[in-house]
Amino acid sequence: MTTPLRFQVPEPASRPGGKPDFSNVVIPEAGSVERPNVDVDPKEIRDLAFSIIRVLDRDGRAVGPWAPALDKEALIRGLRHMMTLRAFDARMQMAQRQGKTSFYMQHTGEEAVSCAFRVALSPGDMNFPTYRQAGLLVAGDYPLVDMMCQIYSNERDPLKGRQLPVLYSSKSHGFFSVSGNLTTQFIQAVGWAMASAITGDDKIAAAWVGDGATAESDFHAALVFASTYKAPVVLNVVNNQWAISTFQGIARGGSGTFAARGLGFGIPALRVDGNDYLAVYSVAAWAVERARRNLGPTLVEYVTYRAGAHSSSDDPSAYRPKAESEGWPLGDPLVRLKDHLIAIDAWSAERHTQAETEIMADVVAAQKEAERHGTLHAGGRPSTRDIFEDVYAEPPPHLRRQRQQIGV
Amino acid sequence: MTTPLRFQVPEPASRPGGKPDFSNVVIPEAGSVERPNVDVDPKEIRDLAFSIIRVLDRDGRAVGPWAPALDKEALIRGLRHMMTLRAFDARMQMAQRQGKTSFYMQHTGEEAVSCAFRVALSPGDMNFPTYRQAGLLVAGDYPLVDMMCQIYSNERDPLKGRQLPVLYSSKSHGFFSVSGNLTTQFIQAVGWAMASAITGDDKIAAAWVGDGATAESDFHAALVFASTYKAPVVLNVVNNQWAISTFQGIARGGSGTFAARGLGFGIPALRVDGNDYLAVYSVAAWAVERARRNLGPTLVEYVTYRAGAHSSSDDPSAYRPKAESEGWPLGDPLVRLKDHLIAIDAWSAERHTQAETEIMADVVAAQKEAERHGTLHAGGRPSTRDIFEDVYAEPPPHLRRQRQQIGV
Amino acid sequence: MSMIEAIRDAMDVSMSRDDTVVVFGEDVGFFGGVFRCTQGLQQKYGASRCFDTPINELGIVGAAIGMAAYGLRPCVEIQFADYMYPAYDQIVSEAARLRHRSAGDFTCPMVIRMPTGGGIFGGETHSQSPEALFTHVAGLMTVVPANPHDAKGLLISAIESPDPVIFLEPKRLYNGPFDGHHDRPVTPWSKHDLGEVPEGHYTVPLGHAAIRREGSAVTVITYGSMVYVALAAAEETGIDAEVIDVRTLVPLDLETITASVKKTGRCIVLHEATLTSGFGAELVALVQEACFFQLEAPVLRVAGWDTPYPHAQEWAYFPGPARVGAAMREIMETR
Amino acid sequence: MSMIEAIRDAMDVSMSRDDTVVVFGEDVGFFGGVFRCTQGLQQKYGASRCFDTPINELGIVGAAIGMAAYGLRPCVEIQFADYMYPAYDQIVSEAARLRHRSAGDFTCPMVIRMPTGGGIFGGETHSQSPEALFTHVAGLMTVVPANPHDAKGLLISAIESPDPVIFLEPKRLYNGPFDGHHDRPVTPWSKHDLGEVPEGHYTVPLGHAAIRREGSAVTVITYGSMVYVALAAAEETGIDAEVIDVRTLVPLDLETITASVKKTGRCIVLHEATLTSGFGAELVALVQEACFFQLEAPVLRVAGWDTPYPHAQEWAYFPGPARVGAAMREIMETR
Ligand SMILES: Cc1ncc(C[n+]2csc(CCOP(=O)(O)OP(=O)(O)O)c2C)c(N)n1
Ligand SMILES: Cc1ncc(C[n+]2csc(CCOP(=O)(O)OP(=O)(O)O)c2C)c(N)n1
Ligand SMILES: [Mg+2]
Ligand SMILES: [Mg+2]
Q1: CA-CA distances (angstroms) from residue B357 to B85, B147, B335, B352, B387?
Q2: Cα(B210) to centroid of ligand 2, in Å?
């Protein structure tokens, strides 16, 4: 027999006890990647799937062809969105520790992705998010109190206590009901976009998935349908380097990037610095315009890092170096946008501290308001009747019988 | 509102009544595509996913770097394999029309793909075929009588009448049980290959799927696992231009080719003239060597044409021009190998006619033999007991009770 | 008209009345479906409303869910019920629960049509009856028509339903009321009153069973092809069976069922799907609870064997009139 | 030891005795599984025999089928039973039928482990009990252990089985015999006799039920977490119930069940899964057929409501001792 085969399982560059090592993340200079027209032939831009589009340079200046036309007010709003999301995470994470709810998931380090993307959308567009895009709600001015009531499963929970915390839903805010099952929403987004095209509407859809969840087979269904029908959809992959305990290499395999997945379908694929608010906005706007102009889908990979735990049930120190996040080469999205605003004299350290205080005050106020309507185990809660409603528009006889059994 | 979106559904170049049109199939000169070393970096050969590797030129000469080292005897054997498969198809198609079985599927025009690939494998390697790779059995000298007994579901059917005709199974001949469900076998092949690597074996797997079935989500699972674990597997896509009534554009979408799917996974992807026996063999050998040398998976797209109906239940004239197959630019694999053998003075028109007669005689003899053991509705048949056996290794009580109910 | 024509007519009527109704699936567009159920719809309504899809059942249902969330009413075809499994996650985890988990913020009005059942020598992957895999799932409705009139009326109801409906079409009934006597010709629907299908729009409401034969001796609860097997068995045994076609498995018309069983005091549950954990088990559980004191014999089940559906031994697998007749005799002897 | 340790021990023992046993799934390799059931196995046996997979359940099961066909004995983990649906086609159409369709040419010895059931505030996607979706499928065996001793012995039997086994682990029992009294602390397995797990290799054979409480008044047939709910209800109502832990749903130990029901004359079927078409329906159908003339009351079912599993209203959904006790009183009053 010829030399025996060997089984190969990818391993991350470093594990607990080891030194953080991101030498494999090749980072081009800010401003160095060209910006094609939105009607470019996908074939011409295959290389964009293997680079990283960046706008903010080391000195906090916005450079290169992808530097967007966002005025100071817009940028300050963006910073406030990210600061709000971070403050919200801090309070809710603590509330979970205090037993006020069962579960929570933070966005730490990834705030720019959903916050900046949201700004590139128009009213009526629809996101099909995962559990880690609450920035779409925050940047869309969805009431923090309502988010908190959902997390607390209290009497004011818009979802009536049925859903796990953070699996929000808001049609009016272009935020599709988050599923606990990974990746199912990716093909649904494509279907929603097909419907918009079928009816001659001008709304577009945005699909969201994490690096780990791209491995699910629904991802393939989405790319096949999007490619075949040229659906007006932006296919977003948030590569925060980790699934739960498995690093991106397990899902990604031998392809250098997740953006590369688009190449097999003739779908233009861009890779962007996910911690660069300006770059994220600019790439999102490019992809949204392609969809809106009926030029078809775009795949976007956001290169970022999950600085916190996967969820309140997770402890990353079991599978990655404790200090790994400090080694992350793309920095912190809030700090980078803040530094940019200061560099362009639109902001100052003082205003920042002041803003932090204001925002935290707002979040705490919202939390107080939410808690007046109860938390998971105390105070006002959804009724038992809510279990039986909305299973169908009209409760069928067998459900009416079951309701009567517990007398609600 | 901006200009309304439009829904786009791909349409084939021509439909019934129209002229066959394959102008979209770009065909490079035979011998014009380079042949990289098997340990090449996949990045270096992305262009091979968009070309077509061809060996036999217009004059029937074998040209270029992919011309394999197959001696005359091997080539004549290959021709005989393809002629046998075609004769087999003719007889079984007729038997189905005569009501001797319920269903049949032909290979007309695609004989080179499975017949030539089989020759590149070694004993112990395992194919995970679809219903259209019987050439793997024929070229592996599996008894025609056994194939026919399976088709007839008769008393000698190795599968005891349980399976639909042509869904053969033969572990000893490296032919995994064909499933009636599309694409499920693609990931199973990767798992088999992983097992071979896990145990330090030197056997490799070959996965098979049609152009239409690449759309199934199991295809994604297979590419993800193959890419992540560098599994020793050859991933074969037989692009015969049509699914049932849907042309390849419906499954392929915006990517120029099916081979391109590999690029998203860093899997080397080759496209080959599926009607060129020498090219198919040569590409298969290249991919098999990569797998055997633990260099990982290869995706191969065979460009061919389904000259016949999808199955005995199908009538292609309802969805494509009657004469479309005559317009197919890559010709007939049997004729092309025959012409090559004549061009190199290894064969003659006379020997060909003689071989046709011999082969048909063998097939007819096999059919007589098979029919002595019965056909679907007449003569010897599998027993009713066979319904209940092999559901589990040991029949559990409830199945024993059910067997007793019909007294078998 | 045939059941195929009735089903096509239901989609045609719905598409002409409501622009949000769209129809798609594998080979459904240009070709009109492998069973021809959608023939002519693309020509009539254009490729935006009736189109071919890639071969990906997960994609078909997943895309339909997105469309339904947008506001369309997709009516999709899975080529054979045997091929619904890849879509099972989208059906169970998504379509069935969307209204509930979003508290009505998003809904999923859609129909998933699929040919079901055996009798066509289709082997294990063209013969299955997976209805019980849907009836266990809260949020779905499951419908099985047994004649052209019901097929059209029920399909229109399903398309107009605000919630997802699984619409299982007994393929062996497409052309006539097959009663299990595979050695005899099947009379075409054109020669059958239930083959008389009104023109235009009408509905058969979901959740209502139909009594196909009145009787006093034993109640046979069934659906799909088995309705005609039960009728044949009644004639052949001379046992005065009451044959109930439940038509809608969920929501179930328990009233009609219990009224009948209380009258006859005996009950047989009949389906083609494998016995264990089949929908028949649910029917037995409900009947014995509701009619315990009226039952003179245990409720019997006649069903497919707990094996894959075989190719050559099709008629030994299919629960035909002989097996049903034997069960009728057995239950009449019990006292 | 805890049920988690018992399950880990079963895999450890099997891997050390048989090189062909491989373990993989999402987060099961380096990290040792989100419930820590595979902790230490990669360190002990290497990444070739215990490894992490991409997040694709279809791929996990599909690859395992190929490995089983090669000659390995994969024991894979689906992180939560709620996530098995993407793999359902591979389980139903492939693993379950491979031996039959290939006439034994290829077989599929594999175990698919998955945590099941609620009680952890996991909401609709971390709480489901999909056992009935497996029991309907010919070719599968379905096992639900209810204590550490059985968990280890049954899992070793499952790994050594020549056919595919679905191994459902009631996650609420991982650390102790939870009886539905969520307001009380759970005594850890270490303080429970069934938490005493023999060292090394032993098996609990598939297909055998266990009587957890002998009684004369009513038979409660159940499995998983509900075993302890039934025991609690018996104590609290003072009704002398016989509690049967079926342990293996398919193949089912019908003898033990019918012997008990014939003795008590009354029967309650209890599970956490949604009522309609749940495995309880099959148990009722079998019991009423086998024990009709001994039954003094209809068989009652206590089960999860026919709705998705809610987050906040978990304890109104979970069939706890109060609901089971009420059913016991009701059935004792019927005569
Ligand atoms: C179908 C399915 N399988 C598994 C899980 C369990 N699970 C939840 S999140 C997660 C990791 C996802 O990682 P990634 O996609 O990278 O998203 P991230 O958490 O990093 O944002 C897993 C395995 C699930 N929710 N659904
Ligand atoms: C899961 C599943 N969906 C649908 C089908 C029905 N079906 C059988 S063959 C076929 C077309 C496959 O086309 P292709 O993959 O191109 O293979 P070819 O027949 O051309 O060799 C379809 C739709 C099936 N067998 N399984
Ligand atoms: Mg991630
Ligand atoms: Mg094809």
Answers
A1: 14, 21, 16, 9, 40
A2: 8
**Angle of the B111-119 helix axis to the B72-97 helix axis, nearest 10:** 130
CA C16 to each of CA B66, B337, C199: distance values in angstroms, whole numbers, following the listed order: 57, 55, 13
Choose which residue among B178, B217, B244, B311 to substitute to test ligand 2 binding: the one with the highest number of ligand atoms within 8 A of its C-beta: B244
Within 8 A by CB and 6+ apart from A234, the residues are: A204, A205, A206, A207, A284, A287, A288, A291, A297, A298, A300
**Alpha helices (H) along C191-320:** 226-237, 254-264, 279-291, 314-317
DSSP one-letter code for D240: -
Pairing relationship of beta strands C241-245 and C218-222 according to DSSP bridges: parallel
Cis ω before B316 (30° cut-off from 0): no
Q: What is the pLDDT of residues C142-192, one digit of tens each?
A: 999 999 999 999 999 999 999 999 999 999 999 999 999 999 999 999 999
Nearest to C313 among B102, B165, B386 (CB): B386
Residue of C92, D64, B61 whose CA lies nearest to A181: C92
Q: pLDDT tens digits for D101-141?
A: 999 999 999 999 999 999 999 999 999 999 999 999 999 99
Q: Is the dihedral angle over the CA atoms B398, B401, B402, B408 positive or is it negative?
A: positive
Element (DSSP H or E) covering residue D153: helix D148-160
Phi, psi of D143 (to 5 degrees): -125, 140
Q: What number is the average pLDDT over the span C128-148?
A: 98
Is D271 one of the annotated active-site residues of the chain? no
Taking residues A203-225, report their average pLDDT.
98
Structure tokens at B63: 């040209």
State which H helix or E strand residue A65 sits in. Answer: none
In the structure encoding, which two tokens stand for residue A269, read together? 């694929």
* CA pair distance B182, B184, nearest whole angstrom: 6
Q: Which of B157, B170, B392, B399 to mutate to test the interface with D (most CBs of D within 10 A)?
A: B392
**Res B1: pLDDT:** 61
- Can you name the residues that pair with D300 across neighbouring β-strands? D268
Tens digits of per-residue pLDDT, D227-240?
999 999 999 999 99
CA of A237, closest CA in chain D: separation in Å? 15
- CA proximity to A398, closest of D313, C142, D296, C130: C142
CB proximity under 8 Å: C 139-158 to A: 139, 141
Q: Is the separation of the CB atoms in B300 and B283 below 8 Å? A: yes
Say if residues B51 and B33 touch (Cβ distance below 8 Å). yes
Which ligand 2 atom sits closest to the C-alpha of B310? 19
- Set of chain C residues whose Cβ sits within 8 Å of the Cβ of A400: none
Amino acid identity of residue C205, one-letter, is P
By three-state DSSP, how is residue B151 classified?
helix
The complex's ipTM works out to: 0.98
Q: How far apart are the first and last CA of chain C?
A: 44
- Report pLDDT digits (tens) over A240-294: 999 999 999 999 999 999 999 999 999 999 999 999 999 999 999 999 999 999 9
Kindly state the percentage of chain C with pLDDT values over 90: 99
- Asked whether the predicted pLDDT for residue A1 surpasses 80, the reply is no
Q: Which of D329, D331, D268, D280 is nearest to D304 (CA)?
A: D280
Alpha-carbon distance of B209 to B235, in angstroms, equals: 8
Interface of A with B in 286-315 (CB under 8 A): 292-294, 296
**Tokens of residue D264, six digits:** 């008590």
B93 token code pair: 């198609």
What residues are neighbours of ligand 3 (ion), with CB under 5 Å? A 210-212, 240
Q: Is C94 on the interface with A (CB under 8 A)?
A: yes
